[in-house]
UniProtKB/TrEMBL annotation, chain A:
Protein name: Nucleoporin NDC1
Region entry Disordered, spans: 383-412
GO CC terms, sorted: nuclear membrane; nuclear pore transmembrane ring
One GO term (biological process): mRNA transport
GO molecular function terms noted in the UniProt entry: protein-macromolecule adaptor activity
Keyword annotations: Membrane, mRNA transport, Nuclear pore complex, Nucleus, Protein transport, Translocation, Transmembrane, Transmembrane helix, Transport
UniProtKB/TrEMBL annotation, chain B:
InterPro entries noted in UniProt: Aladin, Beta-prop_Aladin, WD40/YVTN_repeat-like_dom_sf, WD40_repeat_dom_sf, WD40_rpt
GO biological process: nucleocytoplasmic transport
Cellular component terms per the entry's GO annotation: nuclear pore
Stored Gene3D superfamilies: YVTN repeat-like/Quinoprotein amine dehydrogenase
Domain of life: Eukaryota
Name of the protein: Aladin seven-bladed propeller domain-containing protein
Biased composition (Basic and acidic residues): 47-57
Species this chain originates from: Sinocyclocheilus grahami (Dianchi golden-line fish)
Residues covered by region (Disordered): 29-61
Length: 657, 470
């Protein structure tokens, strides 16, 4: 019963949110539409005519109908936001994984719907702009003989151009949504009311939609220039529309260099993107609004909605986020609620609230510690990445320490038998990462796994010793270890059973592998993205940051506010948990690529906060420990913790971290 | 406010060494050590420090004029001076461009100039150049020192020098790391991050630098890789920065930007908080408990932000008198009065105030008259008490050596035996003046910081000032 209450509650929040969001977006729609009309009909030299035309157009029935259609579009956008939004971003570790996400059926449906919506919006836009854009078919003079000129319906290429642009923009929005993690919702470092936040973000949204529209217009114009002929003929043949040969075709240079056309394309694109981005923005604002949970309740039926219970909730991630955010806020800003946390239960006198909260925070933090330690173990032992889940396996330590990765696959210039040359090819793939003088961006453990790189101890190494290779091999290995920083690291997954295979199959497979190694596209696709594993490890670190803030502020406040000493009992646990986590985090940042900063995005709607979460976590962790040590000072010596941890805390007491 | 007439007469031409038994002493009994604390007090002279090279625009006169093609010149003008430069270039080369383009650009240029002069007449500081603005709104001085900051927790301070380098001095350590960075020009303000041993925020002309100086490292030249560069378009020059007392947020302000930036430094993300009016933000200060933030503008207006939901209240102010009356109507807490001090004294003839962390000594830098001979800048020190009622008693003047004027000052954040005022003098010397007293707050077992905080401790019921009186 109680559980259902939580679930219904968890469902209610998004629903109410969605309704609010839709209401706001729909209310804002006429405003943006009016601005669009004003801009699209703009004429510098007839201002009065322009204004009067616009006002009459705004009250026309076609505009009202367009608005209704646009409302439908906003509704569907809101639905998709609600369905696709995520608090923990999915971080693809290679371009192949990214491709897999883009081609996922769910994403395909998304793209299809967005293409359709883009066409709908563009249809509305073209109707609103009017003039030569208004309909798909226009009457024109057919190719008649003599004086008899029949009036037939021709294809209006301008209209088609805008519709196709809408579909293209819809697809690129959907595609960029995956690439830029558009549906990832991050929480702001400060709390703001909804309206000031909306006002503050609005210029950014306008700027983003203009820039995105300009990019899309450029790309679409290029695309239409090359491939515009296909949809044009297809549409005209299916709808039995003729192509007016007297008009300039748009898929030519002169047809595209039409300032008015490009202006209208950009304006409509901006309108399209703005409608969608505004919904995304409103959704983010509504979803990240802080929610306040009661710390304890006098009624047992409300007990399930209290902070300690919601914190322990594992099924709905949103609730956990809200609860931890609330914990961080109450620990900093609310004395009365802190006192509730520190109080004892009325019959029995147990500090249930504090116990539940601290237990939950500590389990979160120790779970992160375990995750980090497991990752380090995986990376550490001889640079070998043990099999992990596909989305979070990491780049091997050997390759990533320098900015440029060495090149694969310059085949050895060995004349002679096919066998020799092919093996040479394999070995070039094998040794290439260790040859320092060639460089190219294409190399990864994955591809070397794919092309079949061999361990020196594997049976194959023994079987294919031609004198040539035997001579070459050791020389290269030693040269590599001496001159470059790439160490010799055997990779797993290569133990192909080759003991008994014939020379022929060996030959073939080697050829295939060397062939694959030289294919730039495949190397490109399987190339690991740097930092991705680090980002994936810390993808949900916002909860850990809040847990750290909440714990440290509560512990610091307990120094003066905790009347019953409930915090003292858990203080050793908390301190050792924090120190252990700090050690794990420190060790993680020693891994290659973990401490490299991502390039800052210029102006895009996608949120890239997740890329820097690990730095935020490290800063929050240190601040948390400092908060506790500065508050307790010398009293920490009385706390029962191990000697190593005490040594580390002493560093903090002396401000040497 | 008390009159300066009740102050004990300053002893001229003798450096004030310390306060003891409620007296500011400039000479000690024989056999006493003048500096009980082993804090470094370095001195810098202008001659040893070479200032940064002249700005690029002024070096143009050193080269011969060379005619490039119009495209090259336009591109160069666009790169150097933006839209203005481009329009200017097109207008000036009227014989090479089509007539309509030259006329059009001349019209646009005139329109832009008119608009900017109108804007500038509203906010006169916007007509200043970047360097002038830095000089106007920062505590920069004519001496070799540009800025100074104590570390909030340890015996360590950072000094920004005329040559745009920053040096860090520690007690008990001879290593003085020197921080230099390509972007570190015209340093306006320094502040150490609270609850952190290493991070130092530096407000520069074009950006914000966060140095991470490892306290255990013996290196004297940390590489520029230790510095994080934070910048936001349109947000420069930065003249004031303020860390929140918990160290989680950093707020930066620029006189040309109406928005102040709230940085999450580790994540390198900023939230702009924009309020039109005032024409910019020149000065920022957090309250000790972190619940409020004061933001002063170049015009007669300042804002007090509450930091729970980041709403603000405008305090328009013409001459200060109306505001003082308004303050008196409220029940003045120490904290609010501190704001009043900082703000009004900055406005009128006081240039700086600094309050000792125990809340018992208040130092006010009285700006002298640069024309008159007998009106040097001096530091007046007040004794303050916050309970049961607020009291302000004169203590005395802190004097430097002959000819040296104080430029800026800061109290040591945790001096054991009272208060310690560090003063940077115009001759490039940094000296420490200890004030020995037994704290009234310590007797009660309650530090004034906490007493200050307890005034506004419960932030859930926290309201802004006007809400409290209404």
């Amino acid at each position: 019963m109680a559980a259902t209450a939580i679930y219904s509650y968890a469902w209610l929040v998004p629903l109410a949110l969605w309704v609010l969001l839709i209401a706001w977006s729909v209310l804002l729609l006429p405003v943006t539409a009016a601005v669009f009309v004003l801009l699209s009909r703009f004429s510098l030299f007839h201002p009065i005519q322009w204004i009067s035309e616009c006002t009459s157009l705004l009250t026309a029935s076609s505009t009202i109908f367009s608005l209704v259609v646009l409302c439908g579009v906003v509704l569907i956008t809101g639905l998709f936001n609600l369905e696709f939004y995520t608090l923990v971003p999915s971080i693809p570790c290679s371009r192949m994984a990214l491709l897999g996400t883009v081609l996922h059926p769910r994403q395909c449906v998304h793209s299809l719907v967005y293409c359709t919506m883009g066409m709908l919006v563009m249809w509305c836009a073209s109707v609103t702009i009017g003039g030569r854009y208004s309909t798909l078919g226009i009457p024109c003079r057919g190719s008649g003989f003599n004086n008899c000129i029949p009036v037939v319906t021709c294809l209006n290429e301008y209209h088609l151009f805008l519709l196709l642009a809408g579909a293209f923009m819809g697809y690129s929005h959907s595609f960029l949504g995956v690439v830029q993690n558009m549906y990832y919702v991050s929480f702001q470092p400060i709390q703001q009311y909804k309206y000031p936040r909306f006002k503050g973000c609005l210029p950014m949204v306008v700027k983003c939609s203009v820039i995105q529209s300009l990019y899309s217009a450029r790309n679409f114009a290029a695309l239409y220039f090359f491939f515009g002929y296909a949809p044009k003929t297809w549409i005209s043949s299916t709808l039995h529309l003729q192509i007016d040969s007297s008009l300039q075709p748009l898929d030519s240079l002169t047809g595209l260099l039409d300032f008015s056309l490009l202006y209208h394309l950009t304006i409509s694109g901006t309108f399209l993107y703005f409608t969608w981005y505004l919904t995304v923005l409103l959704f983010r604002i509504y979803v990240t609004e802080a929610y306040s949970f009661p710390v304890q309740s006098t009624f047992t039926e409300d007990a399930e909605q209290c902070l300690p219970k919601v914190l322990a909730e594992t099924n709905t991630l949103v609730m956990k986020f809200f609860a931890l955010q609330d914990l961080a806020l109450l620990s900093q800003h609310s004395l009365s609620r802190r006192l509730e946390v520190f109080c004892l239960s009325q019959p029995g006198g147990h500090p249930h609230n504090w116990n539940a909260i601290s237990r939950e925070c500590l389990s979160l933090l120790s779970e992160l510690t375990q995750r980090l330690v497991a990752h380090q173990d995986a990376v550490a032992s001889n640079g070998r990445v043990k099999s992990q889940s596909a989305s979070s396996d990491t780049r091997s330590a050997s390759l990533s320490s320098s900015g440029k990765t060495p090149r694969l696959g310059v085949p050895l210039r060995t004349p002679g038998s096919v066998f020799k040359s092919s093996v040479g090819g394999v070995h070039s793939a094998l040794t290439a990462p260790f040859t320092p003088d060639v460089d190219s961006p294409f190399s990864s453990p994955a591809i070397r796994r794919l092309v079949g790189q061999q361990e020196p101890r594997s049976p194959w190494f023994g079987t294919v010793q031609s004198p040539h290779i035997m001579r070459r091999g050791p020389k290269l290995w030693s040269a590599s270890t001496g001159s470059s920083r790439f160490t010799v690291i055997p990779l797993h997954g290569l133990e192909t059973p080759v003991n008994s295979c014939s020379c022929h199959t060996l030959n073939c497979s080697a050829q295939v592998k060397s062939f694959l190694a030289k294919r730039v596209l495949i190397v490109y696709l399987f190339n690991k993205l740097p930092e991705a594993s680090s980002q994936a490890l810390f993808a949900d670190s916002q909860v850990h940051i809040w847990a750290l803030q909440g714990l440290s502020h509560l512990v610091a406040a307990s120094f003066s506010e905790d009347q019953f000493g409930v915090v003292q009992t858990t203080l050793p646990n908390i301190l050792s948990c924090l120190v252990v986590l700090l050690e794990a985090v420190d060790r993680h940042f020693k891994l290659p690529h973990a401490s490299s900063k991502p390039a800052r995005a210029v102006c895009r709607m996608g949120d890239s906060t997740y890329k820097t979460l690990r730095f935020a976590l490290r800063a929050a962790l240190k601040t948390a420990i400092y908060k506790i040590t500065t508050t307790f000072g010398e009293h920490l010596n009385a706390v029962n913790i191990s000697t190593e941890h005490r040594k580390r805390l002493q560093q903090f007491l002396e401000f040497k971290e | 406010m008390c009159s300066l007439g009740v102050f004990p007469a300053p002893v001229t031409a003798a450096q004030t060494l310390l306060e003891r038994n409620n007296e500011l002493l400039s000479a000690l009994h024989p056999g006493e050590h003048p500096q009980p604390c082993d804090l470094p007090s370095p001195q810098f002279t202008r001659d040893t420090l070479k200032g940064h090279s002249r700005p690029e625009s002024s070096s143009r006169s050193a080269f011969l004029d060379q005619r490039d093609t119009l495209w090259m010149r336009s591109a160069g003008a666009w790169r150097d001076a933006g839209l203005y430069g481009l329009l200017d270039e097109i207008t000036n080369s009227a014989e090479e461009v089509p007539r309509f383009l030259a006329v059009g650009s001349a019209c646009v240029l005139a329109l832009l100039r008119w608009a900017s002069s109108f804007h500038g007449s509203l906010f006169p500081h916007l007509t200043l150049s970047s360097d002038e603005m830095v000089a106007e709104f920062s505590q920069m001085s004519d001496s070799a020192l540009r800025s100074f900051a104590w570390h909030p927790h340890t015996d360590k301070f950072a000094v920004a020098l005329l040559d745009d380098s920053i040096r860090i001095y520690k007690s008990n350590s001879s290593a003085t790391p020197t921080l230099k960075h390509r972007c570190q020009r015209s340093v306006c303000a320094l502040q150490w991050k609270p609850l952190c041993g290493s991070a130092l925020a530096v407000a520069c002309q074009s950006c914000l630098l966060i140095w991470h100086v490892d306290p255990t490292s013996l290196s004297t030249r940390p590489s520029s890789g230790c510095a994080q560069v934070l910048s936001h378009p349109g947000h420069s020059p930065i003249t004031s920065i303020a860390w929140s007392p918990t160290g989680s947020l950093l707020v930066s302000a620029s006189p040309v930007d109406t928005a102040m930036m709230v940085w999450d430094v580790a994540a390198e993300s900023a939230v702009p908080l924009q309020r039109v009016g005032g024409g910019g933000v020149t000065y920022l200060s957090w309250s000790p408990d972190g619940s409020r933030l004061l933001a002063a503008t170049p015009s007669a207006l300042f804002r007090v932000w509450e930091t729970r939901m980041w709403t603000c209240e405008r305090w328009p102010c013409l001459k200060g008198s109306c505001q003082v009356r308004k303050l008196r109507k409220l029940s003045i807490t120490v904290f609010e009065l501190m704001y009043a001090f900082i703000y009004f004294f900055k406005l009128t003839f006081f240039s700086q105030t600094s309050w000792d962390p125990r809340g018992e000594r208040l130092a006010v830098l009285l700006k002298g008259d640069s024309q008159a001979v007998n009106h040097p800048s001096v530091i007046a020190v007040f004794k303050t008490r916050s309970s049961p009622v607020f009291e302000l008693l004169p203590c005395g003047f802190v004097m430097g050596e002959a000819g040296a004027e104080p430029r800026f000052m800061q109290f040591h954040p945790h001096f054991q035996h009272g208060a310690l005022l560090t003063v940077c003098w115009s001759d490039g010397r940094i000296s420490h003046v200890p004030f020995y007293f037994s704290s009234a707050g310590l007797l009660g077992g309650d530090s004034p910081q906490q007493a200050l905080a307890s005034n506004t401790a419960d932030h859930s019921s926290n309201k802004l000032y006007t809400e409290q009186i209404s």
